[in-house]
From TrEMBL:
Protein name: Molybdenum cofactor guanylyltransferase
Catalytic activity, reaction form: Mo-molybdopterin + GTP + H(+) = Mo-molybdopterin guanine dinucleotide + diphosphate
Domain of life: Bacteria
Domain notes: The N-terminal domain determines nucleotide recognition and specific binding, while the C-terminal domain determines the specific binding to the target protein.
Provenance organism: Thiomonas bhubaneswarensis
Location of this chain's protein in the cell: Cytoplasm
Keyword Repeat: no
Residues where Mg(2+) binds: D105
Length: 201
C-alpha cells in the first residue's frame, strides 16, 4: 500500500508576491482570468488538496484579506527577494508538518499535486518534493517539511535566492507529471489571452 500524507497535515501557500514586470508591473494574482482573479483560480484548485491555506502577497493586502485567509508579506528587510522569501514567510507561520506552495500565475495546477508529491516524499524519505513536467522541474510548486524553517531562514539570510540551490541541499523527491499544460505559467498579457481560450481539464 502506498502511504499518503493526510491533507490536514499540509498547509497550502499561494505565492502572489512577485513584481509582475512582464505584465507591466501589475499584481498578477488579482488579474481576472476566466471570471475570477488568478490567485482565486489557484485557490479553488489547491484548497481541496490541503488543510489550512495562506496567501503570500506584497501589494494590495487589503484586497487579498477580503478572501478570508491569512495574508503574509515577505520580510521587509528584503525587497522582492523572489519566491524563496515567500516560502520562508509561509514556513514562519505554518503550524502543520508540511507546506505546499503554488504560484498565483499557474491556474491549471493538477488536482492530484499534493497527493502525488506527498506519496513520493514519504516513499523516498525525502524532505522536499517537486514536480517535473515537460522535462522541466517546476520548483515553485514545492512540498516541503515545515522543519526546514530554520535552514531556509539561514539560507535566505546569507543571501540565497535561487530555489534550486536551496532544494538540492536536501533529500529531494521528483515526481513526473504527464500533463505539462497543468503547469502553464501566465507571465504576459499574451499568455493570459492564449490560456483564456485553451480548453482545460
Ligand atoms: N513572495 C515573493 N514571491 C515572488 C517574488 N518574486 C516572484 N514571486 C512569485 O514567484 C512565482 C513566480 O514568479 P515569476 O512569474 O517568475 O515572477 P513575477 O515577479 O510574478 O513576474 P515577473 O516580474 O514578470 O518575472 C509567482 O508566484 C510570484 O508571485 C518575491 O519577490 N516575493
Ligand atoms: Mg511566472
Amino acid at each position: 500500500m502506498v502511504s499518503a500524507i493526510d491533507r490536514a497535515d499540509i498547509t497550502g501557500l499561494i505565492l502572489a508576491g512577485g513584481r509582475g514586470s512582464r505584465m507591466g508591473g501589475i499584481d498578477k494574482g488579482l488579474q481576472p482570468w476566466r471570471g475570477l482573479p488568478m490567485a482565486q483560480q489557484v485557490l479553488a484548485r489547491l484548497q481541496p488538496q490541503v488543510g489550512p491555506m495562506l496567501i503570500n502577497a506584497n501589494r494590495n493586502l487589503d484586497v487579498y484579506r477580503t478572501w478570508g485567509l491569512p495574508v503574509l508579506s515577505d520580510s521587509p528587510e528584503r525587497d522582492f527577494a523572489g519566491p524563496l522569501a515567500g516560502f520562508l514567510a509561509g514556513l514562519e507561520v505554518c503550524t502543520t508538518p508540511y507546506l505546499l506552495t503554488a504560484p498565483c500565475d499557474s491556474p491549471l495546477l493538477p488536482p492530484d499535486l499534493a497527493a502525488r508529491l506527498g506519496e513520493a516524499l514519504l516513499a523516498e524519505r525525502a524532505r522536499i518534493a517537486l514536480p517535473r513536467a515537460g522535462g522541466r522541474l517546476q520548483p515553485v510548486f514545492c512540498l516541503m517539511e515545515a522543519g526546514l524553517r530554520d535552514d531556509l531562514r539561514a539560507f535566505v539570510a546569507s543571501g540565497g535566492s535561487k530555489i534550486d540551490l536551496w532544494t538540492t541541499r536536501h533529500p529531494l523527491a521528483i515526481v513526473d507529471f504527464d500533463d505539462a499544460h497543468a503547469f502553464e505559467n501566465i507571465n504576459t498579457q499574451a499568455d493570459l489571452q492564449r490560456l483564456e481560450q485553451t480548453p482545460s481539464p
